[in-house]
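Hello,

Following up on my earlier ticket. Below are the two sequence lines again, exactly as submitted.
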Amino acid sequence: MGNDLFSAEVLNETWEIMCNDMPLALWETFYVTVAATFFAIVIGLPLGVLLVVGEKDGILPIPKPVMGFLNVLINVLRSVPFLILMILVFPLTRLIVGTIVGTTASIVPLVIAAFPFVARLVESSLREVNPNIIEAAQSMGASPLQIIVKVMIPESVPSLISNFTIAVTTVLGYTAMSGIIGGGGLGKIAINYGYYRYKYLVMLVAVVILVLLVQLFQSVGTKLAKATDKRLKSGK
Amino acid sequence: MIEIKNLSKTFSTADGTFQALKNVNISVSDGDIFGIIGMSGAGKSTLVRCINMLERPSEGSVVIDGVDVGTLGRRELRKLRRSVTMIFQGFNLLMQRTCLKNVCFPLELDGVGKKEAKKRALELLELVGLSDKANAYPSRLSGGQQQRVAIARALATNPKVLLCDEATSALDPKTTRSILSLIKDINEKLGITVIIITHQMSVIEEICSRVAILENGEVVEQGEVNQIFSSPKSEAAKHLVFPGEEENVAELQYGKRVLRVVFNDSESTETPLIAKLAAEKGIAANILYASTKSVGGKAFGCMLLSFPDGETAEGAKRYLSSHDGITVEEVVNNGK
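Thanks for your patience. The regenerated structure is below:
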């Protein structure tokens, strides 16, 4: 079985599986990726902001123990391998979604894995903002909240978009893994057909589609980042 | 009226404490253009930041119109910063906002309505001569244009005081002059008090009426600009007023007597003194160096004369000092 990768029989069978399962799998992967990244940003963005403004000489210093806790939490979550994290968060997944299997359930571990990463990305984006511009805003009587909302975030939009693109593609990679714990999508197809049933061609096609998805997200992200960057002088 | 009283600022660094400002006393009257000059590291930027409390003084106080700004709460301080605004060496515009939106920014912070803010911003862009750049992003503008936008932005909240932190240091001489004349215009038209921080004597000459010289965190001399130009007392002031090359010239004349003659009004600059010295006293002076510039609308001249011996030098000194508006001083000749 499956010794000839490209025989007519295999091609036919693969085509059939593709037609039946691929549209749903593609949609599931897309939905899980976007939803997980969205929630990761919802949690990670404010956290990243805190990491920058909460520093000792930041614009809104936070007590040192709190900052220390945030940093440790982020580092710990980032160092747990995703495969293990998925299993560790089962109780939380059950609490939030009601079940631990299925496509929607796989969003929970993805968010847990991605938000600390997003927080670090946001932190690095915000650190790129010219501190003199922040000082100028202070000299105009801006409050810390105004500086965050009107200066730091808008000024780093291009960099934030670039970094969120990295986050999306990373999450996309993780979704493939969630096939193991019953999450849907391209990962499930690759594992179920390719790994468990030796249909290597199906696995190969699923991987190629994943690669194309990454390309798509990346090029859209890069274009958006460029379009929003008003520091560039191109296009007079 | 801005009064800086006994102001000191100490920074603690990894290698101990560093005193950036030592017992600074300065008072600036309303409507003045006041210059604070010093070499880099003299504490100028720290001093100007103490005025709007971007930097908290370690000791002493800053009193603006009778209000000790060090005692203000956060909210009151933010309000104060709308009436004491600032422009910077690096312009510090928001790069992701158009010029118009940059000028609107302080109004936005103040909660002014969008329409009203836009109207005011357009007026200000017109005042600084950049109406046509309203929708351009700062990256498309030259340094001088960016500084004009920054000035418009600083004026948006109708300030009483404008602080300029090395505002022209990043600009070429021609652009510097045009920015300075804009600042002077604003000072005259709107009656805004201006405090200028600079390391360039030319900036002080061009628009300041009073000046304080800062050296190692201390004010070593302050007063009317033309007074300091004509008779600088401190070493730092002399160094700033008389450019370094002058001393070098004097050093070449080892063994001779060198006098520095300063002319500080138009009458004395219009008299052919050296010719008269030769004709009336028979003393032939060798001119080593001479310059004339306009300081605060007054002609200001400086000359270095060398004489072969003490007798002629003394004679020249007596003769020249007898004229009004002329200061004569012997240059110490180290002769390396």
